[in-house]
Amino acid sequence: MLPWKRALRPLAALLLTAAVATVPAATAAADTAPSSGWNDWSCKPSAEHPRPVVLVHGTLGNSVDNWLSLAPYLKDRGYCVYSLDYGQLTGVPLFYGLGPIDKSAEQLSAFVDKVLAATGAAKADLVGHSQGGVMPRYYLKFLGGAAKVNALVGLAPDNHGASLSGLTNLLPYFPGASDLIKATTPGLADQIPGSAFLAKLNGDGDTVPGVHYTVIATKYDEVATPWQNDYLSGSDVHNVLLQDLCPLDLSEHVAIGLFDRIAFHEVANALDPAHATDTTCASAFS
């Protein structure tokens, strides 16, 4: 190994460590139904909730750990709920979302097709956390997903890049660091502000016609920074700052997706706007 590559490893490790610190310790990903009842392939959508909901985990998450609270929350409200693993790297178990995002979008495409075939629904709704709110946009825009998806709800999605509280701004001071990260964890590299992936994704507009977009951000986000980078522009976009709903909510990048019931209430509103109710601090107990 060249000496300069050895010198770059600490920076790459620091970036990865910072990202790992934002997710809980993984337990086990599953392709079968977790005990709490989602990924039930016999579930048939009701007239009240006619579209299945596909949950898309974030970077270094997986189909179980990211959704231990939100999946049962939606299931209890009558939705057919599904989650997938994507972006796996060879030899890296449990921590996913690290592969090239365009390839991960292909995995999402196949999974949505599987969900629609099983449920008989014409369209699905997608709810994603962090990268899970960004990657589906590639599916919608470039892989024909807009014909199969009614709504995309993003929880702290780094739609215009994640600077990790400015950490990625150090990359230019380490020649070759960006190339090393792209080679080892392309899913992380794709989310760095200014990446070729983000340029393609956002180059001709943030949204596509026919899909309802909701973004739920938190001003305490330490990963998708600045938090305004989460927001989308478009004719059918609802951008929400969590603290405008409840000033007392201190959730940061992880908590907003893992256990914040105030954010979950706003997700439910986005999935069923015809029956939406005000999201307030009291929604934490609903």
Could you explain how this protein is built, in words?
With 286 residues, the protein is an alpha/beta fold. The chain contains ten helices and six strands; from the N terminus they run αβαβαβαβαααββααα. The chain has helices at 3-20, 70-76, 101-119, 131-142, 177-184, 186-189, 196-202, 242-245, 255-258, 261-271; strands spanning 53-56, 81-84, 124-129, 149-155, 212-217, 237-241. It has a six-stranded parallel β-sheet with strand order 2-1-3-4-5-6, sandwiched between helices. α2 links the parallel β1 (53-56) and β2 (81-84). α3 (101-119) packs across α4 (131-142). Mean pLDDT is 88; it is low at 1-31.
Summarize the entry for a quick read:
This protein is α/β, with parallel strands linked by helices. The chain has helices at 3-20, 70-76, 101-119, 131-142, 177-184, 186-189, 196-202, 242-245, 255-258, 261-271, and strands at residues 53-56, 81-84, 124-129, 149-155, 212-217, 237-241. It is built from ten helices and six strands; from the N terminus they run αβαβαβαβαααββααα.
Sheet of most strands: 6 strands, parallel
Q: What share of residues is helical?
A: 25-40%
Radius of gyration: 18 Å
List low-pLDDT spans: 1-31
Shape assignment: globular
How many beta-strand runs? 6
**Could you state the order of secondary-structure elements as H and E?**
HEHEHEHEHHHEEHHH
Strand arrangement, largest sheet? 2-1-3-4-5-6
- Provide mean pLDDT, rounded: 88
Q: In percent terms, what proportion of residues is strand? A: 5-15%
Class by helix and strand content?
alpha/beta
Helix tally equals: 10
